Known about the structure:
CATH architecture: Roll
Helix content: 10-25%
CATH class: Mainly Beta
Low-confidence stretches: none
Number of strands: 6
Order of helices and strands: HEEEEEE
Number of domains: 1
Strand content: 35-45%
Distance between the termini: 34 Å
Shape: globular
Strand order of the largest sheet: 2-1-6
Largest sheet: 3 strands, antiparallel
CATH topology: SH3 type barrels
Radius of gyration: 13 Å
Mean pLDDT: 88
Amino acid sequence: MMTKRSVDAYVSRRPFQPFEVRMVDGQRFRFTNIEQFIVGRDDIAALTRKGTIVHFRIGLIATLRPLSVRRSGTRRRR
């Protein structure tokens, strides 16, 4: 179970590092810039790609992990 303190420590890194939130039910939310979310006391409000706002409980976050940012012109090895 994630705590507000651990979420705050992760999202307040500077420079901002894109990250993914994985919920205990398997849902995933990806954040590529700091304007996409607001961390409250018990939940996070996030703006989706479709322009809707979703709320999810911090206590239901399974993991936070960085997103790898691919540079343009580079290819992934297979």
